[in-house]
Design a protein that fits this description.
The complex is a heterodimer of chains A (325) and B (204).
Chain A (H helix, E strand, L loop, with lengths): L4 E5 L2 H8 L6 E3 L5 H6 L7 E4 L8 E4 L2 E5 L4 H6 L1 H6 L1 H8 L4 H6 L2 H6 L50 H7 L3 E5 L4 E5 H4 L18 E8 L2 H4 L1 E6 L10 E10 L2 E10 L6 E2 L1 H7 L6 H11 L12 H17 L1
Parallel strand pairs in A: 1-3, 2-3
Antiparallel strand pairs in A: 4-5, 5-8, 6-7, 6-8, 9-10, 10-11, 11-12
Helix pairs in contact in A: 5-8, 11-12, 12-13
Chain B lengths: L4 H16 L1 H9 L14 E4 L4 E7 L2 E7 L5 H8 L18 E4 L2 E4 L12 E3 L12 H8 L9 H14 L5 H7 L10 H14 L1
Helix pairs in contact in B: 1-2, 4-7
The chains are: A alpha+beta (325), B alpha+beta (204).
Chain lengths: 325, 204
């Protein structure tokens, strides 16, 4: 690991003022992803600013939103009774993430900012456009079993690794951020960027902007929600495919539906087209099979990951069974 | 876009504190009683390194003074500076759980955090579990149920088990296996590890 200067911030303003002018500077909270990348010399910050003393830890209902502070730990959010009651799939996505040890350290803001687990991104001896633009994408013709089938480009096919972000995407969550001069509220739908130009640019955040929390608009559908994760082992593994599904049904007819997929996209993948088809439809296996076809219509396999296309379709149907059980 | 009054109020307050009384802000805002405060800093910010800096850790109830670079992980500080080698280095990337320690009673992977970040924390390693010759109930249960083979993962398994029991999640096999999945045992002693945790959970 490269040497770095370490700073503790006692205010958000001080933290932002320290990080914003230094392109290599990084915030650290739980550190579970950043330290790992620093060990591998993928991240080489000259300054690391510890934000753990900042007060963004609350998990609470605020009028029409469920607010989750950026520094709330994954384990605390997963166990929170309000989260479990208002949007159980957020809790389920968190419990399905990482390990108990990592969830005790990792924060919500850090989870949203985690980097891909593409092995080529993490191996500095290999070409990777996300790490070194213009060097090429090793995964296109390499080992790509875990890689994306949606939202990819010839520059990058790395999947976004977060489970939480998939449930939050299905929740219409809003990311609250603070910069040097102002605060912004960025819909999660506009937060993540596909690798169209420079794959290093993954979010709408400007360097130095600090996530202070996430707001989840309260909705009836979220109460009846589930997170289904399909993976190579039953716990502590990244998704091959995952589905976040929330459903509001009355008299057998779907009134509101939220459908997002994980493990398949370069960004957490919401399918507005499939949702549009489902609203007004009767709850049935056939309707969800149809929705699954629509959701995966644009999917492109790269060889090793071809299996994800039928697997994702089946997972969508299985998630329906879980939510309507 | 809309701002919440309480959030704006907070940020203004912190800004004023930071701008008006930099030294007090560093001391009161972070609440750290360590040599870090002596470092030169901007208001609301205390910075040190990259050269070795004094770091004070509380490990198994004892205050320890170290002089280490900020890049030293908590795991390396424990093993290579304090010679508490019970905590093991397995993967070094949060995959195996051999480095599990308790920080303020909560289990974390010590390989993925920097020692300098833990000056105000109570750190417990496997060496801190027994009281003299009296083993911690989890340690005794691992012995009784043969919850290991080669033993390399065992300190991490035991400390993680203590953390798991602190969480009070229930002791059915599915729950134990799910919440212990961050500790890998390549000898495959899982059935006996589960039995040991279940028995210790009935006593702790």
């Amino acid at each position: 690991m490269r040497p770095f200067a370490y700073a503790r911030a006692s205010s958000a303003a001080a933290a932002i003022a320290a990080v914003a002018p230094d392109a290599s500077a990084r915030y650290i909270a739980g550190g579970t992803n950043l330290v790992d990348l620093m060990v591998d010399v993928v991240e080489t910050p000259q300054l690391v600013v510890d934000i753990n003393a900042l007060p963004f830890v609350s998990i609470e209902r605020r009028t029409d939103v469920l607010h989750i502070g950026a520094l709330a730990r994954m384990s605390d959010v997963a166990d929170d009774p309000t989260v479990r009651a208002m949007a159980p799939f957020i809790s389920e996505a968190l419990v399905a993430s990482a390990s108990a040890q990592l969830r005790n350290a990792a924060t919500i803001g850090g989870n949203l900012m985690q980097r891909t687990r593409c092995a080529y991104f993490r191996d500095v001896s290999q070409p990777c456009n996300k790490r070194s633009p213009g060097s090429g994408c090793s995964a296109l013709s390499g080992e790509n079993r875990m890689h994306a089938i949606l939202g990819a480009s010839d520059a990058c096919i790395a999947t976004h690794a977060s489970d939480l972000a998939v449930a939050l995407m299905a929740s219409d969550a809003i990311v609250r951020v603070r910069g040097l001069r102002d605060e912004r509220a960025i819909p999660l739908a506009e937060f993540y960027l596909r690798p169209l130009g420079d794959p290093r640019i993954e979010t709408a955040l400007r360097h130095g902007e600090l996530i202070t929390g996430v707001d989840v608009p309260i909705a009836k559908a979220l109460v009846n929600s589930a997170y289904l994760k399909v993976r190579d082992r039953s716990s502590y593994e990244f998704a091959l495919v995952s589905v976040a599904l929330a459903l509001e049904v009355s008299n057998g007819t779907i009134r509101d539906v939220r459908l997002a997929l994980g493990g398949v996209g370069t960004v957490p993948w919401r399918s507005a087209e499939a949702e549009k088809m489902l609203v007004g439809a009767a709850v049935s296996r056939a309707a969800f099979e149809h929705a699954a076809e629509i959701a995966l219509a644009g999917a492109i396999g790269r060889g090793h990951n071809d299996f994800k296309i039928p697997l994702a379709k089946r997972a969508v149907v299985a998630a329906l069974a879980k939510v309507t059980a | 876009m809309s701002h919440r009054d309480d959030e704006l109020g907070f940020s203004r307050r912190i800004f004023l504190v930071g701008a008006g009384a930099p030294v007090l802000a560093a001391a009161a805002g972070v609440g750290i009683s360590t040599p870090l405060e002596a470092a030169t800093s901007a208001p609301g910010l205390t910075s040190v390194g990259p050269q070795p800096v004094p770091v004070s850790l509380t490990v198994n109830g004892q205050r320890q003074e170290l002089n280490i670079e900020p890049r030293v992980t908590l795991l390396d500080a424990l093993r290579e500076r304090l010679f508490l080698t019970g905590t093991k280095k397995g993967c070094g990337q949060g995959t195996c759980g051999a480095c599990t320690v308790l920080v303020n009673g909560r289990r974390i992977d010590s390989c993925l955090t920097f020692a300098v970040m833990h000056e105000n924390d109570e750190i417990t390693t496997v060496e801190g579990l027994a009281k003299g010759d009296d083993l911690h109930p989890v340690q005794a249960a691992f012995l009784k149920h043969d919850g290991f083979q080669c033993g390399y993962c065992t300190p991490g398994q035991i400390v993680s088990s203590v953390g798991f029991l602190n969480e009070k999640r229930g002791l059915d096999e599915d729950t134990v296996r799910e919440y212990m999945s961050g500790n890998i045992c390549r000898c495959g002693a899982y059935p006996n590890i589960v039995k040991a945790i279940q028995e210790a959970g009935g006593r702790v």
